Amino acid sequence: MSRTILITGVSGSLARVVTELLSPGNKIVGVDVRPLPPGRPFEGEFHCVRYTQRKMTEIFRSHRPDVVIHLGRIRGTQVQSSSYRYNQNVLGTQNLLDLSLKHGAKRVVVMSTYHVYGAHQHNHVGITEDHPLRASQIFPQLADAVELDHTATSYLWRYRRLETVVLRPCNIVGPSLNNMISRLLRARAVPRLLGYDPMMQMLHERDAARAICLAVDSERWGIYNVAGEGAVPWSKAIEYAGARAAPIPHFMAYPLVGSLSALNLLFPKHLMDYFRYPTVISDKAFRDDFGYSPQYDAVDTLRSVGASAAWHA
Amino acid sequence: MRLIKRLLDTVTKPLPEHMGARLREAAQVDSGGYDPWGLHPETAERTLRSMRWVYEKYFRVRTFGIENVPTGRVMLVPNHSGQLPLDAMMVAMAMTFAADPPRIVRGMVERWVPSLPFISTLFNRCGSVTGDPRNCTALLERDQPILVFPEGVRGSGKTYWNRYTLQRFGTGFLRIALETKTPIVPIGVVGAEETYPAIYNFEWLAKLLAIPYVPITPTWPLLGPLGAIPLPVQIDIHFGEPILFEGDPDAPDHEIQAQVDEVQSKIQRLLDEGVAARKGLSMLKLLPGGRP
Lengths: 313, 292
What we know:
By secondary structure, chain A is of the alpha/beta class. Helix content of chain A is 38%, strand content 19%. A 7-stranded parallel beta sheet of chain A has the order 3-2-1-4-5-6-10, sandwiched between helices. Chain A has a 3-stranded mixed beta sheet with strand order 7-9-11. A two-stranded parallel ribbon of chain A has the order 8-12. In chain B, the strands form 2 sheets. Chain B has a 7-stranded mixed beta sheet with strand order 1-9-6-2-5-3-4, sandwiched between helices. A two-stranded antiparallel ribbon of chain B has the order 7-8. Chain B is globular.
């Protein structure tokens, strides 16, 4: 059965893996606020558009997608204004969900993140989906990510005719990904906080893409954590990726990362605590309901990222 | 790091290989060598081993009835004392060096511990986890041995006059034991109560510094860092027989309290008998207060 699948954030590197898996037998319509990277092959129609723009409506009118995969959350950087992120992530998501409802989409898969749970010293291990989304209290900079998640979940409960799946994955990394954590692991020297070494879960890009496909093909709906197999301390993660850890005392790291991220280097300051306190999620529900089982464990995943580092070659 | 490891291996003997293997197997680690809470059996074994002389030579620890500890899930419940968690360390070491099979105990630590650099990481690698009931339940479901001090800081922070007198027990541990059908092993730790004889606790200073207590001992803070060295009291660990409670984990407090009291009185008896059975008359025994 051929479906029309609308994918947001399609210029991103994860969307590339997802599109490869979904394009046989399906019609893909890709949208993104960014243009497609030059030289990227894309089987389907692409539109460069903001999710809040009127043009978005026209895309829904003319294609009437059966499934919408929302991968287009804008990641925080200090240089982007928070109002831009709020508009794209919260208002944009709401617009997409409204359009999906209006134009008869059957399913929506929304990619949230485990960051919404917040890195906190009181976190227990195996955080389930009903855990409060503490991030907005700890890091106001993540409020847009939390509200995106809330918007999706409120539609999930209110409009049952639109089958909604909200996925909250752990760190997604992989050889072809260009997200913050993969870039970090591909560096020669990777910062870590001296004296802190939280356990981290790593989801391979292929497993992440497969999880999205499972969510697309199933008839179940709900909110689900997605994790890879096993967890490793951040220092070990760096080691498996083949890099060298550069320990920085935490009282120095906060101002340092703050000033670097103002120049759009490294990663936003508010993500620092994820390298200090563990945020280990449980994906038992997703495994039980969707028959998901990751094919890569944390060690394989990290090795694959390390092997893709340019300086290795 | 590698140098420290090699140095340790030459100074202290590693556990026999078959025991090490059993230790790792019981810990149920992932392919990376860690469990989700951050336990790393090799680091745990090595850390405990590096402290072995403290256990064997300094505190001359003796264990009684350690064969009472069942295999599989179990909750170890000792009395708490001595300002620093030396009693927890000694029980953990007894479980690794004297128990058969050797086990890595999972200590439930105070919620502020994760904010401490180095210590939090070392504690995690050695098996400790944040004292959250959800951590406790999940670990018991993985058949791990849990070490819990229901007295909390009320026990460890008490002054010398209250030695061997149990402080109020929380009820949470018993509810978890009921819910997960876990046997409770009452433990009396004799001796640790005298390692730091606290004369006074500066409560207002503790509140100001947001820490549980600020004790004054005959040597601390008078002698500075030297004063933080514990007195070399012999420590006896008495393991009681396991108790498997039955009942509703959501029963009101007064019903749970009866079962908590039973655990508490078992521990008190182990303590009383343990103190009475000690040979010789230590000078500290002459000081007023405390039981026997």
